[in-house]
């Protein structure tokens, strides 16, 4: 009966099912114990990404057991004063299954394994004993016919030996990197920029199917990083299927990277996501998300100028007031007419923001936080202006982002009495706990007849108030988190 199960397409179907368990390590181990067929299908999946942070380091000796006798001797000599290593005959050629490798993680897992064997909570960040062990494992991958799909190069003095092996073996091991789809390059030191540039040129010649590329730089090495730019730009241009590009210029070195961003014009037919620091653009869903302590407005304006016509969802959330918000808002007005979802807070220029919202004739979802000082005599006028410009397409309004006491949330009665937008959901911090606002809400529901839910941040505090049964006839009150929509 069992043999009949594995006739036809059955093994292939099971293998496809098991591939979807690649993050369920315990489940894959259980599958490997079912029978020989399941074991042969589960083991390669289990060993595709053994250096993941989720995995235990207990597998390290298995790689040691796959080495030659000379390498095993080196390991014993390296560890003989601290750890007794036993080598067993491996059941599979585990190294050959590797698909995901971030170089720095090899050293990290070796250190974790040594900590377990030595019964110590931690070793120094750099321990000389880990270097030869890490090097041997890396050489094992190079010599085992590994075909990587994801590779991360973390440029550090701690990995000098491994990096030298990598740099000098690229041209001899084309198979190792020829099918890489995800490449991550972290430049955090001033070590060996010349070799990195040379490696990028080799990769550009043999690896053209990368779909995701991540580059991380630090500004204190900006002058040295400039030496990489020609090779980086050539490498980016060489890619035929680039869909995701991440450029993380740490320590405010964003102005150094205009040339790299310009090179992305060569990928305009394939690029779907652009991440700049923590700015995220997903072209396939026409989404731009900006979330950072401090953002580079000129860069954002440049991006909006190129892709603003496609933009449908925009989220701007920072930890500091956007003082250059006027430039950002002007860019929205000029380049982004098709926005459907807008989430924005901490913009100083309220009057300009009101004008922009009034021009967004396709806007359906608006989340807004504004808590800056406006002269008392002007507040009601501003709220009235805001209510009147809301487009007739608007269905969702969240004014609770800047709680407590945001400008709009403080004058709910004025907002509702002058709003003609057919809202279906209104989200507030809790400002309808008085008779004036309750009556305004009833008047809005009677006049517009579209509002279904009011989400309240302080919902459970609000339950203490005596809400008349009359209000319940018009709208349902729910906790804010139940109906909030995120970009």
Automatic annotation (TrEMBL):
<dbReference type="InterPro" id="IPR032675">
    <property type="entry name" value="LRR_dom_sf"/>
</dbReference>
<dbReference type="InterPro" id="IPR036047">
    <property type="entry name" value="F-box-like_dom_sf"/>
</dbReference>
<protein>
    <recommendedName>
        <fullName>F-box domain-containing protein</fullName>
    </recommendedName>
</protein>
């Amino acid at each position: 009966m069992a043999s009949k199960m594995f006739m036809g397409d059955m093994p292939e179907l099971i293998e496809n099912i098991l591939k979807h368990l690649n993050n369920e390590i315990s489940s894959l181990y259980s599958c490997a114990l079912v029978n020989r067929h399941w074991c042969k299908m589960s083991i390669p999946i289990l060993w595709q990404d053994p250096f993941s942070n989720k995995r235990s380091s207990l597998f390290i000796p298995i790689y040691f057991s796959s080495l030659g006798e000379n390498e095993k001797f080196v390991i014993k000599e390296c560890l003989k004063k601290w750890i007794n290593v036993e080598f067993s005959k491996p059941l599979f050629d585990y190294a050959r299954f590797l698909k995901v490798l971030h170089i720095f993680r090899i050293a990290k897992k070796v250190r974790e394994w040594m900590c377990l064997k030595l019964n110590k909570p931690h070793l120094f960040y750099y321990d000389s004993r880990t270097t030869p062990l890490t090097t041997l494992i890396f050489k094992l991958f190079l010599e085992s016919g590994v075909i990587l799909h994801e590779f991360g190069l973390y440029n550090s003095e701690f990995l000098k030996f491994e990096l030298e092996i990598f740099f000098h073996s690229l041209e001899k091991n084309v198979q190792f990197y020829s099918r890489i789809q995800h490449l991550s390059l972290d430049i955090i030191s001033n070590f060996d920029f010349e070799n990195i540039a040379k490696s990028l040129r080799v990769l550009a010649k043999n690896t053209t199917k990368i779909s995701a590329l991540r580059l991380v730089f630090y500004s204190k090495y900006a002058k040295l990083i400039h030496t990489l730019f020609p090779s980086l730009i050539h490498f980016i241009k060489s890619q035929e299927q680039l869909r995701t590009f991440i450029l993380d210029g740490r320590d405010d070195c964003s102005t150094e990277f205009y040339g790299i961003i310009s090179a992305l014009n060569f990928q305009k037919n394939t690029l779907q996501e652009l991440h700049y620091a923590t700015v995220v653009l997903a072209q396939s869903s026409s989404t731009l998300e900006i979330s950072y302590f401090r953002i580079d407005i000129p860069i954002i304006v440049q991006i909006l100028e190129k892709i603003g016509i496609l933009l449908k969802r925009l989220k701007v959330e920072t930890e500091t007031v956007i003082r250059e918000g006027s430039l950002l808002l002007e860019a929205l007005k000029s380049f982004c007419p098709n926005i459907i979802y807008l989430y924005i807070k901490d913009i100083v220029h309220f009057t300009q923001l009101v004008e922009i919202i009034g021009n967004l004739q396709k806007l359906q979802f608006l989340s807004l936080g504004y808590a800056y000082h406006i002269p008392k005599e002007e507040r009601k006028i501003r709220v009235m202006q805001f209510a009147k410009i809301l487009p007739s397409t608007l269905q969702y309004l969240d004014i609770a982002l800047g709680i407590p006491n945001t400008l709009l949330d403080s004058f709910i009665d004025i907002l509702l009495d002058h709003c003609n937008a057919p809202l279906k959901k209104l989200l507030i911090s809790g400002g309808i706990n008085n008779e004036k606002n309750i009556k305004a809400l009833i008047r809005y529901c009677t006049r517009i007849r579209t509002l279904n839910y009011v989400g309240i941040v302080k919902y459970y505090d609000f339950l203490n108030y005596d809400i008349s049964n009359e209000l319940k006839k018009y709208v349902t009150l729910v906790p804010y988190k139940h109906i909030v929509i995120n970009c």
